[in-house]
Amino acid sequence: MTSFKDDYMGKFEFMTKMFIPMNDQNNHWFLLVADMRAKKLILLDSTPCVLRNEARKLQAKKMVVYLEEMFDHDSFYEFSETNRPRVMEFPLVIPIDIGKQAAESNDCGVWVCKWMTDCTLTDNYNIKVDRVSRMRLAIDLLIKPYNIKKDQV
Hints:
The protein is an alpha+beta fold. It has helices spanning 2-8, 53-70, 108-118, 131-143, and strands spanning 17-24, 28-35, 40-44, 92-93. It has a four-stranded mixed sheet with strand order 1-2-3-4, sandwiched between helices. The longest helix is centred in the middle third of the chain and has 18 residues, at 53-70.
């Protein structure tokens, strides 16, 4: 757990939001945002589905139980006197005023990536995904140094 935290997260005292991509039935991506400053959980879904909404909420709640256990680990804190967050007590918010992906677009993963990149410093999750944003994401994934196959493309 310590190496995961060191590689991807840093110390809790400096964390404002945690973005957790989630997958439903191996065919749909949605995003859980743990907003540590506002003390709330935000469930973002570019294609809400009446038949799957409850299952997605349950999946998010299971992740919150894991987060609660994870945040009990001392390695997440710079200062020993920092209060441990009780993430399970955060309300789960599902915004209704956010954009939705076009029918048959298969863009749910693009929406999740765009929320994670565009909404780090804002609470406005009403984003737009279009050709330009799809191309920007593809180029970013291609040229970043962590792409070990970029020289083969």
